[in-house]
């Protein structure tokens, strides 16, 4: 180690190495951390050691702000938002933490002086994949915005030992690899062994008389495990406010059952430990609920019980008394996954705190709010009554009582309307009796919101219509948003710098309406040239990455046409594939056909048990294989599948996209957030009138958006009158030729049956009406091509897209929640030091 790199003696005056923000302080801190935490010096450090030292250097600065935030929140008895979510898809921490601290430049310079490759250090981080897709990523954006808006908040969730699987592509098929993200340690979390709570399952309930001779119920469980807290600090941008993400890990209440052990039953003793640890072991890799899966229900109850117990503990430790609980906390249910929290808070208030029903219900009802994220019937959670009875007997009793009191209200309000009573009941009676979690969530909450205007409207008029009739004031909309820190500053630093130049500083990143200032440059040729250069550079980066990872060569001159999201039939990746096949057939028919060169790029994971989605991945790769190797195509078009689409890889895609594919069947995508990420990075959208596409189109201007397809009303109408995909197949020769080409075996080495399940489904059933929108989609793609031929026009459209995306910041969404739903106020933590903000 050189003299300059040796830690100075603690006696020498210097900027504190654990909190200093200058380049010199960061350098010194980095060397100290490499030495004292990793036990390494520069010459022998592995890439992982180099990353860990950087992570700890950032973390020290986080912790200092965190402690100050916690002190302030405690002493001021601040009203606090509790976000309850079974998923958080956080993405890599380091780059975002540096940005939020305002020390990216200083850290980069420090790294250069230490002769470290700054980008390589950032790349080393393995992201915590504690979510499947949109819903989990939304929770992460919301945590980022809550801190940025200085709103005291706690995110509660599960610390899955194995997050969403890593995806590999082998022979065109998806192969799932387990995500051992904790293997190398997680520098961003602090274990809290003293913050743990018992969680009970099974057994029975008993009635007894308490000291006041009142009848009460107690639960005698069959099994008790415990949840231990792991805390991750979440710092806002341009503020010292740090919020808490508290994730629960399940453990045996005692590590070994010594009684079993003493009589020689070693396996029995270890078994209880394994059973307990299994609960937080793995994230279910499915966007839809796992019907009847006992472990999934155990997971939901596990994290909800720990969280509510923790909230009560925090409340009693600060303001108390328990009667004022709902003044201290408001709890947002991110979908129905945490809806058991309603029954759990009731249980604790009734059975542990001796409250009467009315008072407990008043508190519970004032505490909770519920966000609905889907209308898809298969995604609406229900749990068999029999399973609840076995696993959570006390909660089932409470749910029955909530239901009885609720239905009494319905009977009075809607006199003699038995059908309505049956529809609204918390218990579904057709087939096996089921608890309807969405109904529980609505009844137990004082506000219910959908996640885009159309979606909220459909929530009110379809799946929750009866509830809207009863309580119209309870329903509202908050359109989703995404974090501009994550999806512009971290993902697309070149664009971020240009925007900062136009706006004069980085304050646009917490006031995204400032993007409007780009509008005045939309027609300036010099500015346009810079804009295009930024896009080209991102395309080159992506092309390099894809070439190294997949062997597919992309040419940045091509139009990068990207569809990246979960693979699902309603998102209609197959519609995109049909367009590719059509383009290919046109080239084959006329090799001199004048085409805009395009790279069709896909990314996304399929649920491991979702056969049709996995076959779609195989089809995309099979089409890629043929087209990319056909000399006649000669590179005019390319097809590529990015393996392992996650936050980190998404960050490579968004900046590089020219065209964003948002082509779900109208009425099916609740909001979408990828649509916002692409548009914020200057991609133009080809899309249907679905989810937030509608609002994006309105914001950016219809002339800057490629619209096609049926709207939700037409879809409903066509389905009601009996949709026959067969007619489209027979009535449109090009469509028929495209489907027939798949069936011909061209993409499957002569195997004419491989893709049959997919094409048969399209031709015979087509529940997502791919064939009905095919022609309109091809026409819209023609408009895309002609716009792309005119670089000045395209660039103008791209600039205007970014300029008008201010509304889609998650800060705006959180502001709406704070004002209209939560009634919470910012509580700024006094700023410590000057940074780059
Ligand atoms: O939630 C996103 C929406 C998106 C919707 C998605 C979602 C999940 O990721 C998982 C389950 C679920 O019911 C819904 O599909 O449209 O943007 C965030 O609201």
UniProtKB/TrEMBL annotation:
<dbReference type="GO" id="GO:0008184">
    <property type="term" value="F:glycogen phosphorylase activity"/>
</dbReference>
<comment type="function">
    <text>Allosteric enzyme that catalyzes the rate-limiting step in glycogen catabolism, the phosphorolytic cleavage of glycogen to produce glucose-1-phosphate, and plays a central role in maintaining cellular and organismal glucose homeostasis.</text>
</comment>
<keyword id="KW-0663">Pyridoxal phosphate</keyword>
<dbReference type="InterPro" id="IPR035090">
    <property type="entry name" value="Pyridoxal_P_attach_site"/>
</dbReference>
<comment type="similarity">
    <text>Belongs to the glycogen phosphorylase family.</text>
</comment>
<dbReference type="InterPro" id="IPR000811">
    <property type="entry name" value="Glyco_trans_35"/>
</dbReference>
<keyword id="KW-0321">Glycogen metabolism</keyword>
<feature type="modified residue" description="N6-(pyridoxal phosphate)lysine">
    <location>
        <position position="677"/>
    </location>
</feature>
<dbReference type="GO" id="GO:0005980">
    <property type="term" value="P:glycogen catabolic process"/>
</dbReference>
<feature type="region of interest" description="Disordered">
    <location>
        <begin position="1"/>
        <end position="21"/>
    </location>
</feature>
<dbReference type="InterPro" id="IPR011833">
    <property type="entry name" value="Glycg_phsphrylas"/>
</dbReference>
<keyword id="KW-0328">Glycosyltransferase</keyword>
<keyword id="KW-0119">Carbohydrate metabolism</keyword>
<comment type="function">
    <text>Phosphorylase is an important allosteric enzyme in carbohydrate metabolism. Enzymes from different sources differ in their regulatory mechanisms and in their natural substrates. However, all known phosphorylases share catalytic and structural properties.</text>
</comment>
<protein>
    <recommendedName>
        <fullName>Alpha-1,4 glucan phosphorylase</fullName>
        <ecNumber>2.4.1.1</ecNumber>
    </recommendedName>
</protein>
<dbReference type="Pfam" id="PF00343">
    <property type="entry name" value="Phosphorylase"/>
</dbReference>
<dbReference type="GO" id="GO:0005737">
    <property type="term" value="C:cytoplasm"/>
</dbReference>
<dbReference type="GO" id="GO:0030170">
    <property type="term" value="F:pyridoxal phosphate binding"/>
</dbReference>
<keyword id="KW-0808">Transferase</keyword>
<keyword id="KW-0597">Phosphoprotein</keyword>
């Amino acid at each position: 180690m050189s003299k300059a790199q040796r830690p100075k003696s603690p006696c020498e005056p210097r900027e504190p190495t654990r909190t200093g923000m200058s380049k010199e302080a960061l350098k010194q801190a980095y060397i100290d951390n490499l030495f004292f935490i990793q036990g390494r010096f520069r010459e022998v450090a592995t890439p992982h050691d180099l990353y860990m030292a950087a992570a700890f250097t950032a973390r020290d600065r986080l912790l200092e702000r965190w402690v100050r935030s916690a002190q302030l929140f405690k002493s001021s008895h601040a009203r606090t938002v509790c976000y309850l979510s079974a998923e958080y898809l956080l993405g890599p921490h380091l780059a975002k933490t540096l940005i939020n601290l305002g020390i990216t430049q200083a850290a980069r310079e420090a790294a250069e002086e230490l002769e470290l490759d700054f980008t390589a250090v950032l790349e080393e981080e393995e992201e915590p994949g504690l979510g499947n897709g949109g819903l989990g990523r939304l929770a992460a954006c919301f945590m980022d915005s809550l801190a940025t808006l200085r709103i005291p908040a706690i995110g509660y969730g599960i610390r899955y030992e194995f997050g969403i699987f890593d995806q590999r592509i082998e022979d065109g098929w998806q192969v799932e690899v387990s995500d051992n993200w904790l293997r190398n340690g997680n520098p961003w979390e602090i274990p809290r062994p003293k913050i743990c709570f018992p969680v009970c399952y099974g057994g029975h309930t008993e009635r007894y008389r308490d000291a006041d001779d009142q009848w009460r119920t107690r639960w005698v469980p069959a099994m008790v495990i415990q949840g231990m807290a792991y805390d991750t600090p979440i710092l806002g941008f341009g503020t010292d406010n740090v919020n808490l993400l508290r994730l629960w890990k399940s453990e045996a209440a005692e590590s070994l059952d010594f009684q079993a052990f003493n009589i020689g039953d070693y396996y029995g003793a270890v078994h209880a430990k394994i059973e307990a640890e299994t609960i937080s072991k793995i994230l279910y890799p499915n966007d839809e609920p796992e019907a009847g899966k006992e472990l999934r229900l155990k997971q939901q109850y596990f994290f909800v019980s720990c969280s509510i117990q923790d909230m009560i503990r925090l409340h009693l430790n600060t303001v108390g008394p328990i009667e004022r609980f709902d003044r201290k906390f408001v709890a947002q249910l991110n979908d129905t996954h945490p809806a058991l929290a309603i029954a759990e808070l009731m249980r604790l208030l009734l059975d542990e705190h001796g409250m009467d029903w009315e008072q407990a219900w008043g508190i519970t009802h004032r505490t909770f709010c519920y966000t609905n994220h889907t209308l898809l019937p298969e995604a609406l959670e229900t749990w068999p009554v029999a399973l609840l009875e076995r696993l959570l007997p006390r909660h089932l009793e409470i749910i029955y009582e909530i239901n009885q009191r609720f239905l009494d209200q319905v009977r009075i309000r809607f006199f003699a309307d038995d059908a309505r009573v049956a529809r609204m009941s918390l218990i579904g009676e057709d087939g096996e009796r089921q608890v309807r979690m969405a109904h529980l969530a609505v009844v137990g909450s004082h506000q219910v919101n959908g996640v885009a205007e159309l979606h909220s409207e459909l929530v009110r008029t379809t799946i929750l219509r009866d509830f809207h009739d009863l309580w119209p004031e309870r329903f509202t909309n908050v359109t989703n948003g995404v974090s501009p820190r994550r999806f512009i500053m971290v993902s697309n630093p070149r664009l971020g710098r240009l925007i900062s130049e136009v706006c004069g500083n980085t304050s646009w990143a917490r006031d995204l309406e400032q993007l409007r200032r780009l509008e005045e440059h939309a027609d300036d040729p010099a500015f346009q040239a810079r804009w295009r250069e930024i896009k080209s550079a991102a395309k080159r980066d992506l092309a390099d990455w894809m070439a190294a990872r997949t062997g597919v060569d992309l040419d940045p001159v091509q139009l990068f046409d990207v569809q990246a999201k979960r693979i699902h039939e309603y998102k209609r990746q197959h519609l995109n594939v049909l367009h590719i096949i059509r383009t290919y057939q046109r080239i084959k028919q006329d090799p001199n056909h004048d085409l805009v060169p395009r790279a069709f790029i896909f990314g996304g994971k399929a649920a491991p048990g979702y056969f049709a989605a996995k076959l779609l991945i195989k089809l995309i790769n099979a089409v890629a294989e043929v087209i990319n190797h056909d000399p006649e195509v000669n590179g005019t078009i390319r097809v590529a599948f990015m393996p392992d689409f996650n936050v980190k890889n998404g960050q490579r895609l968004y900046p590089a996209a020219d065209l964003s594919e948002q082509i779900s069947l109208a009425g099916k995508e609740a909001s979408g957030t990828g649509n916002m990420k692409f548009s914020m990075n200057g991609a133009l959208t080809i899309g249907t009138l679905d989810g937030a596409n509608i609002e994006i189109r309105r914001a950016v201007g219809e002339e800057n958006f490629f619209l096609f397809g049926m709207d939700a009303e037409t879809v409903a109408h066509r389905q009601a009158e009996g949709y026959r995909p067969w007619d489209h197949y027979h009535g449109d020769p090009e469509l028929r030729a495209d489907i027939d080409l798949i069936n011909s075996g061209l993409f499957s080495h002569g195997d004419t049956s491989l893709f049959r399940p997919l094409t048969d489904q399209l031709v015979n059933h087509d529940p997502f009406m791919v064939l009905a929108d095919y022609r309109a989609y091809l026409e819209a793609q023609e408009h895309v091509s002609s716009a792309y031929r005119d670089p000045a026009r395209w660039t103008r459209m791209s600039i205007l897209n970014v300029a008008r995306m201010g509304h889609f910041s998650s800060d705006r969404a959180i502001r709406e929640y704070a004002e209209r739903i939560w009634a919470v106020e910012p509580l700024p933590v006094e700023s410590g030091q000057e940074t780059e903000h």
